[in-house]
# Entry
Amino acid sequence: MRNPQLNSNGELTHLLTLEGLPREIIVNILDTAESFLGVTEREVKKVPLLRGMSVFNVFFENSTRTRTTFEIAAKRLSADVINLNVSTSSTQKGETLLDTVDNLAAMHADMFVVRHAQSGAPHMIARHVGPERHVINAGDGRHAHPTQGLLDAYTIRHYKKEFSALTVAIVGDILHSRVARSLIHALTILGTPEVRVIGPQTLLPAGVESLGVRVFPDMRKGLAGADVVVMLRLQNERMGGPLLPSAQEFFKYYGLTPDKLALAKPDAIVMHPGPMNRGIEIDSAVADGPHSVILPQVTFGIAVRMAVMSILGGS
Amino acid sequence: MAMRVHIKGGRLVDPKHGVDRPADLYIAEGRVAGIASAPRGFEPERVIDATGLVVAPGLVDLAARLREPGLEYKATLESEMLAAVAGGVTSLACPPDTDPPLDEPGLVEMLTRRASSLNLARVYPVGALTAKLGGERLTEMAELRDHGCIAFSQAEVPLADTQVLWRALQYAATFGLPVWLRPQDPHLAHGGVAHDGEVATRLGLPGIPAFAETIALGAILQLVRVTGTRVHLCRLSARESVEMVRVAKRDGLPVTCDVSAHHLHLSELDLGYFDSHCHVVPPFRSRRDREALSAALADGTIDAVCSDHTPVDDDAKQLPFGESEPGATGLELLLPLTLKWSREVRLPLVQALARATSEPARILGIDAGHLGIGAPADVCVFDPETYFTVAPSGLRSMGKNTPFLGYELPGVVRWTLVAGEVRFERG
# Structure
């Protein structure tokens, strides 16, 4: 089965997941992002690479932040940007997902940035619209959030230069996290020798080791010697059910506090995809402390999304 | 009108009697009247040339949804009964998950009357075990039996309440009625859409663990031990379930079980990039599970293979995997998938066909699935060597939903006879 996001020449036509992408494609995106970082620092923050192209942000699941970063990225590439919040309730009123997509395609969309609560929805859309239009997955269910994975990889490369000797620890709700899955794929493709996942068994998916990670139920052991610590957002609705008893207990055992962080390497960096729950997965002293690179992640995120859009738009 | 038919020159395969040899078949008054030599004075009104073809009992399918009453937009009795005979299926059991469910004698009677008026395959309704499949109130099982239900089941709505399950089994045992159950713990399976394993983890799909099946199976087997009810276990999907049934049978429990033809060939890996045609219940599990199911059908631990025919309209499949409606069309693929399986496990045809003819007939308790003298002349004449490509246009079922689209499969049905009448003929 051919990777559905590559064309017959092996070029990227959609970005649906990082799984199975050739290393060169990922490195090329990161290198391109690096060249765009200067653009975002300039007074005129625009380049004309996507002039005349229409980018539709189609969010079936709300996320102001992610949508905004895609919007900024597209505008800096001089594309026309249209934002659509298609709540799932309106599609339940009758129009199917593919009807919605057909309508948008008829409005001459060149690129779809799609977020959907169901794993696999962007794959389906990509199959439907074919290779002439490009689909970027902005997060689908628990499956993938590839631009987040790329910006995380970019951040790690920025601070650590090489992946070949790193230990990266990802902490928290792996089960529901598309961020974790995409980052794990990015790290393994880029040759990271040790990727660890840390969390209670209730938040680890079945057979997670098959993704190429080591499991540490004990956060203190898992953080020992880590170069990079990635904290995941814990959704409130996971609390008080069968998965976790309380936010307090979670914070005690899996929240990142200065004393736990002290077990990692002295120059370890701390990342978080945002939005943060202070006092639940991360202590403010860490979030705002010297190891934190959480705000630079946001800046890099725009450059990475510009890189992805320009590569797809140029293919 | 039942004709006198002479099926000549074929290879007669009759699993129940261990027959696999060149032999002509003579049919009169809807029954088998002679094998190899014609009965005295037999004058055929029709001769079917079966040279190079297999002459076998019509297939008996333990699970085919006909979507009537209530779900005619997915499929109709006409379309699905035609699909049955086109697939060589002459007897089929339909689960009670219609709309409304088959929980009242009137509904059952309407279905059987409509079905028999079509003059295609024979239909055996499975009645609902609880009213509206709601899992609370028992149906009038004895009354439903008198109106034609051959067994009772919860279809795809497993009982959450083990008290109700226990009482339902006790009540059924009182009247000697068989109960068919697909073992699944509804709490453990809640929200899941794929096997809880490596693929679901990779694709980010909510999982249904194998132990959702084995825990429910354990409960059922314990209750069979205490109630003595005859229980048929539907569509096992996990390796551990096979082991549990093996032990239960060794202990002499009155249990039988089946597997869907799909699960003999596919595993979680076939989900590929979210192929919603692979969204089925129970889910395709690991390769080891698939191999265990295949081996267990070969060694007889699993008694029968069924189509688990579930026609789903395109719109309900053209959705993200988790939102798509589960199920696959199967009536016309049961024979090809059984043949493909028999070649993979190197099982002689006569033994392989038993799993789709005499064995399911035994489970149903009907006189079908064999071709002894005097048996109902339900016959499937097929070409075992010709391969065909599975395509929507080639399927008579209204359900075009199958993970096998594009596959090359062996086995083309040429004639299907029910009660000695030709009900299907491929030109």
Q: What stands out?
A: Chain B is about 30% helix and 20% strand.
